[in-house]
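Morning F.,

Quick status update on the modeling queue. The single chain you submitted on Monday has been processed. Sequence for confirmation:
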Amino acid sequence: MSLLTFLQQPDVRDRFNQTFQKPKLTQTPPLLAPPLTKSYALVGRAFDYLLRFQIKAFNPHAIERGWVAQNALHFLQTNSMMRLYEQAYLFVTEAKEHYADFLKTQQVTDTLIVSALRLAKLEAIYRSKKIDPNLDQILDEDIADLKALLAIVKPQLFTSPEPILLNPTFDLASLVVGGADADLVFGDALIDIKTVKEFSLERRDFNQLIGYYVLVKLAGIDNAPPGHEIKRLGIYFSRYAYLFVFNVLDVIDPQTFPSFLDWFKRRCDPSGLLDP
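Structure tokens below.
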């Protein structure tokens, strides 16, 4: 299971829908980077990596953790898929080298984009536990799609002296829901990256953001500085180069939220791992 799977449980979904009112998008920005491929999920994951690479380049103080894609190496090795393991190990090694070069030059190359696509494939293997026998096959249109997405990134949206955490996790709270890692913490905002064609705030995406916030309240954020608080939640619509952010207090009632938090904890942690 994972946080997303947990949130799809009927009783959990219904409780979220009844408790939290989804905010409205007040603007309709133009679609700046229409899809150039049908590899929607793959391109979306690869862009997550590339945007975080860029954010680290913009903000050297940003705190990183190990790539989720690297977890696929353990999965492949323990399941005795040694040919794929060796191929994946090579791809991860190359990706580290290309990423290090990018941080020095801040020049996005085709080799960096190819590495991001391979990391995305490995992450999909880890999350789904389904094997992709074509790790080395990269489509030109996927590369072109990612180039178009990167070309519209506005550095000013992602540059700040405030704390920045890339792909953060939530200590034991990530464990009790079967796995949870957000895309980005930027100052007091927790931001998810969505590479989708339609500009709309879907209920499942809003629930996901609230789910992350609940995990923060239950166990905090790994590597966050002392006293750090999440006060805003948001989504970066990458095909629109648009960052939508809203205040937590606009969607959460401080009077009723503690009882919701108690329910969530009982529902996801019946064994009491999160108990003090």
